[in-house]
Task: inverse folding
């Protein structure tokens, strides 16, 4: 029997498509909503091929409240996962109002419509960016948030606060915010993965495009940071593991496993990896040489951050399982699939 149904807003995107697969695999019904602002129908087709289920899809902008209302009228679902947001840190500095409008209007519409239609549970995509440059590693959910350093980061903080306040004010609403560390990799089938438009801003897509010959040379931004090899340290989390954290969050709310109505979890591996370590691991796992050079530091980068994921491990019963080797092999397999490389 099918468990309850989840509306996945932004389900054609990178994390949304992987999460849709894991929800279907876990027995949940899924409805995908997306406006293709940074995604393609091919991802929905990938979800359908991997799962063998004809997952329903609606093309809609979650910021367009009247159009979005029709999705609530048409489909029965208890839960919503909100991935439908813009995520490029640099772009958010150039176009702050685009970020505030997209990321906050979509969430406001979701909360209002959930109340209007009596839908209960929402999982929100937050980010480790809310911690800024932490004073102590690893960060726990109790580590204080620092003032945001970009409009993108600010939308994540405001959204968390909006959810906390809404849950406090409106009975019947429950929420879990997942603070992702750095999501990387792709589905092992190589049917879905990350598809950045234009020049990739994030490290792993830049690495895979360099390996594919689309970019000439990877710039490693800084080798003079106060870290063992001088490059920045992050907690890289496999996208399939990350997707499974959403299933755990949904089941916690649907099955009423908690008295708490608003909860926050760090979703990371607990392992810090430097940029240079990641580059060398990618070369080793995929048996290739990457053209890279040391370049100046990138403005706005923090030196190091990695998660203490114990709360998610113990309370959600979720743990990152895939090795960095598997993840980097999957990232390369996906890039090769997209480029038609044998
Ligand atoms: C990782 C490391 C770079 C590109 C941001 C957001 C976060 C999350 C993910 C949304 C850094 C270095 C990168 C390159 C490099 N948000 N790098 N050469 O900045 O940790 O996190 O994206 O989706 O909220 O803040 O991720 O992948 O850009 O960078 O050396 O060409 O790789 O300096 O140390 P970041 P990233």
Result:
């Amino acid at each position: 029997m099918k468990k309850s149904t989840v509306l996945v807003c932004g389900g054609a995107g990178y994390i949304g498509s992987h999460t849709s697969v894991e929800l279907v695999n876990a027995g949940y019904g899924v409805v995908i909503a997306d406006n293709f602002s940074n995604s393609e129908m091919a991802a929905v087709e990938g979800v359908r091929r991997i799962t063998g289920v004809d997952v329903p899809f609606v093309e809609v902008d979650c910021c367009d409240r009247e159009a979005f209302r029709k999705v609530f009228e048409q489909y029965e679902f208890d839960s919503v996962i909100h991935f439908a947001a813009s995520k490029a840190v640099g772009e958010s500095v150039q176009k702050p109002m685009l970020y505030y409008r997209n990321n906050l209007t979509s969430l406001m519409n979701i909360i209002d419509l959930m109340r209007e239609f009596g839908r209960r549970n929402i999982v929100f995509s937050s980010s480790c960016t809310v911690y800024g440059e932490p004073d102590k590693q690893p960060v726990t959910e109790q580590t204080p948030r620092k003032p945001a350093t970009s409009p993108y980061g600010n939308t994540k903080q405001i959204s968390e606060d909006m959810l906390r306040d809404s849950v406090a004010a409106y009975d019947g609403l429950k929420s879990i915010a997942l603070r992702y560390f750095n999501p990387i990799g792709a589905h092992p089938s190589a049917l879905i993965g990350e598809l950045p438009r234009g020049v990739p801003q994030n490290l792993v897509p830049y690495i895979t495009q360099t390996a594919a010959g689309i970019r000439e040379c990877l710039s490693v931004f800084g080798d003079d940071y106060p870290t063992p090899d001088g490059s920045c340290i992050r907690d890289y989390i496999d996208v399939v593991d990350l997707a499974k954290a959403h299933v755990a969050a949904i089941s916690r709310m649907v099955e009423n496993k908690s008295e708490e109505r608003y909860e926050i979890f760090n979703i990371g591996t607990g392992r810090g990896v430097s940029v240079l370590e990641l580059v060398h691991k990618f070369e080793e796992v995929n048996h290739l040489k990457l053209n890279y050079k040391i370049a100046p530091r990138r403005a706005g980068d923090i030196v190091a951050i990695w998660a203490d994921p114990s709360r998610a491990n113990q309370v959600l019963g979720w743990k990152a399982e895939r090795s960095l080797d598997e993840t980097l092999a999957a990232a390369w397999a996906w890039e090769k699939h997209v480029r038609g490389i044998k």
